[in-house]
Amino acid sequence: MKKLLIVLMLMPLSLFAQKSDVGNWFIYFGNKKINDRVNWHHEVQYRNFNFAGDIEQLLLRTGVGYNLTENNNNLLLGYGFIYSEPYIAGTDEKRNFNEHRVYQQFITKQTFGRLSLQHRYRFEQRMVEDDLKLRLRYFMSCNVALNNKKMENKTWYLSAYNEIFINPEENYFDRNRLYGGIGYKFSDLVRSEVGFMNQASSNTSRSQLNLITFVSF
What we know:
This protein has 2 helices and 11 strands, in the order H-H-E-E-E-E-E-E-E-E-E-E-E.
């Protein structure tokens, strides 16, 4: 079964290596437990317009969280640096800019047998060049264990999420992300997923292949 996940993750090498309307995101999520209450979150996202090489964004994010209850309710304060290279509309030319982002979030989790749910509420203060922008985000995900009765080691699972982005001042709808994929939990420390995510804004819609690794240590 592990070989199937590896094949699924390698398929895009041939499918999307050339210029494509489907982009690709390589994503790493890390979580370090400092003690029973405090954790260090860190992540790297390398986003491309094609499989690799035509960069769309590089996102580096980190933060320190505090568990209000054991493992289920977490408050976090974080910072993100984002480098972007979007195309200029109607051309093959690009521009580039940096964004600095401070954010606060609350995550709550529930488990019902094979089903695991997560809700994340995030408030961002985004410094894009010389402009300050505020944004609210709500993320809901679910994982369903397939070959075991719960999300334990050596478990295949289905994964899905939806995240909506809201601007609090004007043009309230910013974007929506809808994702579905399959994953494998190797151990309490590592799990991986491959899936497709559609990102829709008020005037565009684009699909992304996501290759995701989660590491806890």
